[in-house]
Write a structure and sequence with these properties.
By secondary structure, the chain is α+β, with helices and mostly antiparallel strands. Helices cover 26% and strands 35% of the residues. It has 6 helices and 16 strands.
Length: 320
C-alpha cells in the first residue's frame, strides 16, 4: 500500500524526481572556455618557440657548412696554383688567379693539335683527369724539359677540346694507348691550340689545364654579403663574367680585419706580410679568415647565428 502511494506521488510531481540534478551554468561555461583558451595559447607559444629554435639551429648549421665548404674550395684551388705567372690580383677581400681544372699527358702531337688519352683506361690506369672540362676560355700549359734550357712551362690558348676515338687520339704505337682499350671503344681527347707548340714538347710530356677566376666577397641584391666566383678571360687585362654565389651570408665588408666577413692576407716564405702593390712572385702563404652570419628574428630581437674559421694555405708551386 505504501509502495503504491509513493509511486503515485512520484507521478503526481514530476519536478520532485529531478530536484537533485542541475546543468552547467553560464558562468561555468565561460570559465571553461577561458581556461581552454589559456592552455591553447600556452601550447601555441611553446610550439612557436620550438619552431623558431629549430629554424635558428638550421641557420647556424647552414652558416657552419658554408664556411667549411668555402675553406675547402679555396684551399684546393690556391694550394695548387703556380706563382710564376698565374696570380693576377691580391686584395684584402678578393683574389684572382689561374686554377688547375685538369691534367693529362701528350699522346701524339701535330703543329696545333694534341691527342690525349682517355679518362677511363684498362687496368686502372689514370693518365687524364678533370675537375671541370676544359674549353676555349682556358689555357693548356705544357712542360718543356731539355738539357740546354732546363724545365719550364709553355702556355697556349685552347681553340677546341672534345672527345676523339682512342685509335686517333692515342694509338697503340705511342705506348700510351692499349689495343684492349681501343678495341673496347674507349674515347680519348683532341686538343686544338691557338698557336703552334714549341720545341722540347714530346709524347709523354705533362700538360695542365688552367682557368682564370676571381674569388671575392660581394654585396648581394638582398642586402647580405656572400663569397662569389667569377670566371675571367684567359689573357690580357682582367675582364670577368657575372658573379656566382658560392656560400654565405657573411658579415659585411669592413677595412677592420677583425670585423670583415672575408679577409685574405699574403706572406712570403719568411713570414713577412706582402704589400698590396708588391709582386706576387714572393708569395708563399695565404691566410684566410671567414666569418659567416645570418639574421634570424626571435621574440622581437634579431639573432645572428654565426660561425668563423681561419686557415693558412701554403703554396705548393711557389718560386724557389
Amino acid at each position: 500500500m505504501r509502495a503504491m502511494t509513493f509511486a503515485r506521488a512520484q507521478r503526481a510531481s514530476p519536478g520532485a524526481r529531478h530536484s537533485g540534478r542541475s546543468g552547467a551554468t553560464l558562468v561555468e561555461i565561460i570559465l571553461a572556455l577561458v581556461l581552454i583558451g589559456v592552455v591553447g595559447t600556452a601550447i601555441g607559444h611553446t610550439l612557436l618557440r620550438q619552431q623558431r629554435f629549430y629554424r635558428g639551429t638550421s641557420e647556424l648549421l647552414h652558416a657552419r657548412e658554408g664556411v667549411r665548404d668555402a675553406m675547402e674550395l679555396l684551399s684546393t684551388d690556391i694550394r695548387g696554383m703556380s706563382i710564376a705567372d698565374t696570380v693576377r690580383l691580391l686584395a684584402d677581400s678578393a683574389i684572382e688567379f689561374f686554377a688547375n681544372v685538369g691534367s693529362s699527358v701528350v699522346c701524339q702531337l701535330a703543329t696545333t693539335a694534341v691527342g690525349l688519352p682517355g679518362v677511363s683506361l684498362g687496368r686502372g690506369n689514370v693518365l687524364t683527369a678533370f675537375t671541370s672540362t676544359p674549353d676555349t676560355g682556358d689555357l693548356a700549359v705544357f712542360l718543356k724539359d731539355s738539357i740546354d734550357a732546363g724545365s719550364e712551362w709553355e702556355r697556349h690558348r685552347i681553340n677546341g677540346f672534345g672527345p676523339r676515338s682512342l685509335a686517333v687520339a692515342c694509338p697503340a704505337s705511342t705506348d700510351l694507348g692499349r689495343n684492349a682499350d681501343i678495341a673496347a671503344g674507349t674515347a680519348g681527347f683532341l686538343l686544338e691550340l691557338s698557336s703552334p707548340l714549341g720545341g722540347h714538347v714530346s709524347v709523354g710530356s705533362p700538360v695542365r689545364f688552367v682557368r682564370r677566376g676571381r674569388y671575392s666577397l660581394y654585396h648581394g641584391s638582398d642586402g647580405d654579403w656572400y663569397l662569389g666566383y667569377r670566371r675571367c678571360n684567359a689573357v690580357g687585362a682582367s675582364s670577368c663574367g657575372p658573379i656566382q654565389p658560392l656560400s654565405g651570408p657573411y658579415r659585411d665588408y669592413s677595412s677592420d680585419p677583425e670585423r670583415t666577413g672575408l679577409r685574405f692576407e699574403y706572406f712570403d716564405r719568411s713570414g713577412r706580410r706582402l704589400a698590396p702593390n708588391e709582386s706576387a712572385l714572393g708569395l708563399a702563404r695565404i691566410d684566410i679568415a671567414a666569418r659567416a652570419e645570418s639574421r634570424q628574428r626571435l621574440e622581437g630581437r634579431v639573432s645572428n647565428p654565426a660561425d668563423s674559421a681561419t686557415m693558412a694555405i701554403a703554396i705548393r708551386n711557389r718560386s724557389p
